[in-house]
Structure to design on (742 residues):
């Protein structure tokens, strides 16, 4: 090694750029898998750090949120500005800034770059998508641009790794190169009456036009390349909408059906593991805690992974090729009427499979207000966990008669009605919230429709991996804790004498499927804190037509809605495995109010339960994810409260109406 | 003499125009200017989403979508 080589150094370098410039691709190409991914404290802005070594120097890469401007208008810009000024706790002030600029869109990208010249930090401009630019007939004299800007300008083509070595060399050279001079902004007296920010923006574009004069060839206008034709078709009011419907059907059926076998595999695996552990431990509290509490809880967390992974693979691919913005463009009008935006569509659609990936998908909504509103109403979409409840109750208690035509049966209509109810209530809630709690100055909807390009496999996979990992790490642990606590509450305290007596009494009634073990389980649950709570809340649920067992099952289903059937099975002295079988259906039909021969489950009660479960927030995992995604405990509490109140009111109205109609 | 001015919302799909002014000085106006809709810039209306809102524009070599509410604040002259 030559003796003149500089001593190994450590550099912190910030990656700054507009959205859709290939910044993530460049990050992966430079640093590989990030060393840290999370949120900046207190805000929902993603923090992403990476590291690489080049020529003996260790370079820490800080990926700043994609932003159009350094004028702080929202939390993204604020975080970017704070990091660049060394005001962001936990992140060292960068030694240099790499501006990622899209060569096909240089004027607007240089807006941010010229703002960065005012930071007093050494800069390197990485010119991405130069290959796309060339196809559009744009040639850029990058050497002359570098001279005029006063900092290195390196064309890179990340998929092929072109220019990466030059870029790394330029980064290493920044300590000696020093910061460039700020670009002088011409003052135009014609705009003197405007506010400073507007004057600066106008002057900046004038300066950029002068900066680029003579060193770039004009970009070819639209409608000349094949992707322009594709763009016209995919944003066409009719063809675009049809294509959109097809894409959404594909996405939705994938998270619904493609994930199902994987989820079954996880369930089977967890069952096997539980059986294995159970066989190796002596009977007792430890075994129950491990098997029914911890392992069941772990299974309940891991089971979400396939849906999250599949949805984020789709989202990253659609975002990478530029379709996500077009989808938002097409759907915007439909959603803006209820106070949401076009970007809310995919998160809400995904929530029909499961609210958890749906709420996480709301990360693609840049606008904070729209994002929060979307998160708040997403759990109202009927997720797949509600389906077994609907199916059992509609199948057992809704008369199987034709509605109009012979193939349209009433249970199917009721089922569809439950889905429609969720959508209608979500629209009403979003509309109401956007006009009350979330009222404010009009939010700019200014959305770039990025150029069409092939999504990068590395970026797509990284996005899915990141989503799964952040779910397991942040939400998973808490969901596990909640399910263990609820398990304990539904199994303790245990008064063995009372349990034995209770179980014996239940067996004495001679119910056909009851066995000693099931009766004991039921007795434990009845005597537990949750069981007693069920009796305690009976006055609250009685107006809904429910008995204490139903109240108890509703409370016990807090960890996850699907638990409700298992709880009902246990409460009716059935083994929980019978939850989806006909035995439970028969038992529910046979259930009577304590001490009478009046059946508990009638059509009004079944409808009231379905409506309650359509609207309630009985899903601890969803609430935990809302807390993590919004970085606040206020929003899960708000969500739980408003949904529970709505669910109660709607169930009450349903029961009273159905009863008064004599159904 | 002032140029014959119209709002961007009135420009038919496929037609070009030149920006004259952005009304207002709030965050929306600043954001529109920062995205390159500065006085003097040429643009073209590429399309409209279903129900006519939002609009797809082409300016400064890229594509931008803005809602009608924003387009109403952009004064243009047909070009």
């Amino acid at each position: 090694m030559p003796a003149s080589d500089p001593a190994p150094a450590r550099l912190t370098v910030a990656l700054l750029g507009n959205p859709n410039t290939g910044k993530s691709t460049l990050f992966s190409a430079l640093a590989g898998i990030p060393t840290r991914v999370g949120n900046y404290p207190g805000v929902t802005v993603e923090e992403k750090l990476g590291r690489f070594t080049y020529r003996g120097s260790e370079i820490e890469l800080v990926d700043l949120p994609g932003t159009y401007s350094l004028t702080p208008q929202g939390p993204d810009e604020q975080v970017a500005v704070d990091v660049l000024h060394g005001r962001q706790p936990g992140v060292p002030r960068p030694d240099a800034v790499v501006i990622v600029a899209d060569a096909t869109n240089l004027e607007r990208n240089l807006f941010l770059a010229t703002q960065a010249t005012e930071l007093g930090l050494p800069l390197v401009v990485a010119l991405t998508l130069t290959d796309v630019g060339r196809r559009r007939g744009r040639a850029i004299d990058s050497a002359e641009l570098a001279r005029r800007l006063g900092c290195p300008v390196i064309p890179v083509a990340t998929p092929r790794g072109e220019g990466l070595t030059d870029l790394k060399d330029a980064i290493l050279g920044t300590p000696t190169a020093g910061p460039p001079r700020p670009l002088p902004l011409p003052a135009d007296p014609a705009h003197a009456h405007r506010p400073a920010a507007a004057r600066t923006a106008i002057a900046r574009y004038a300066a950029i036009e002068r900066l680029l004069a003579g060193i770039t060839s004009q970009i070819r206008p639209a409608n000349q390349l094949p992707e322009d034709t594709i763009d016209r078709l995919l944003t066409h009011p009719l063809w675009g909408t049809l294509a959109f419907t097809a894409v959404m059907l594909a996405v939705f059926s994938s998270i619904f059906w493609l994930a199902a076998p994987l989820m079954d595999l996880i369930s089977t695996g967890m069952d096997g593991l539980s059986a294995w552990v159970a066989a190796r431990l002596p009977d007792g509290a430890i075994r129950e805690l491990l098997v029914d509490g911890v392992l069941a809880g772990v299974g309940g967390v891991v089971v979400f992974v396939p849906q999250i992974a599949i949805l984020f693979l789709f989202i990253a691919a659609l975002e990478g090729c530029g379709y996500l913005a077009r989808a938002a463009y097409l759907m915007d009008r439909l959603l803006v009427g209820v106070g949401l935006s076009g970007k809310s569509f995919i998160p809400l659609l995904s929530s029909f499979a499961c609210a958890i990936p749906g709420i996480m998908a709301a990360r693609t909504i840049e606008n904070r207000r729209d994002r929060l509103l979307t998160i708040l109403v997403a759990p109202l979409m009927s997720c797949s966990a509600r389906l077994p409840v609907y199916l059992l109750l509609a199948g057992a208690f809704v008369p199987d008669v034709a509605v109009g035509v012979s193939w349209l049966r009433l249970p199917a209509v009721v089922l569809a009605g439950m889905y429609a109810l969720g959508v209608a209530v979500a629209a009403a809630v979003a509309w109401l919230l956007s006009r009350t709690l979330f009222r404010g100055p009009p939010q700019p909807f200014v959305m770039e429709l990025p150029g069409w390009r092939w999504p990068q496999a590395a970026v797509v996979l990284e996005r899915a991996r990141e989503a799964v990992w952040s779910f397991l790490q942040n939400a998973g642990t808490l969901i596990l804790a909640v399910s263990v606590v609820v398990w304990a509450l539904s199994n303790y305290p245990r008064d063995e004498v009372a349990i034995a007596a209770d179980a014996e009494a239940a067996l004495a009634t001679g119910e056909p499927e009851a066995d000693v073990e099931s009766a004991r389980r039921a007795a434990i649950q009845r005597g537990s804190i949750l069981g007693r709570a069920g009796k305690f809340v009976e006055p609250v649920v009685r107006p809904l037509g429910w008995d204490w067992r139903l109240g108890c099952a509703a409370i016990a289903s807090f960890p996850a809605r699907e638990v409700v059937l298992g709880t009902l099975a246990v409460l009716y002295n059935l083994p929980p495995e019978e939850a989806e079988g006909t035995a439970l259906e028969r038992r529910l039909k046979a259930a009577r109010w304590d001490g009478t021969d009046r059946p508990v489950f009638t059509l009004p009660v079944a409808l009231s339960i379905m409506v309650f479960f359509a609207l309630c927030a009985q899903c601890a995992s969803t609430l935990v994810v809302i807390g993590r995604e919004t970085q606040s405990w206020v929003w899960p509490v708000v969500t739980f409260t408003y949904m529970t109140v709505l669910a109660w009111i709607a169930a009450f109205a349903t029961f009273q109406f159905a009863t008064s109609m004599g159904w | 003499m002032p140029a014959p001015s119209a709002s961007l919302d009135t420009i038919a799909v496929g037609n070009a125009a030149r920006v004259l002014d952005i009304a207002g000085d709030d965050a929306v106006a600043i954001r529109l200017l920062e995205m390159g809709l500065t006085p003097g810039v040429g643009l073209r209306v590429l399309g409209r989403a279903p129900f006519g809102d939002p609009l797809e524009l082409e300016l400064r070599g890229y594509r931008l979508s803005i809602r009608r509410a924003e387009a109403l604040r952009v004064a243009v002259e047909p070009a």
About this structure: Strands of chain B lie at 6-7, 16-22, 42-48, 55-59, 62-66, 74-78. The domain at 6-78 of chain B is CATH 2.30.30.90 (SH3 type barrels.). The mean pLDDT of chain B is 90. Chain B has one domain: 6-78.
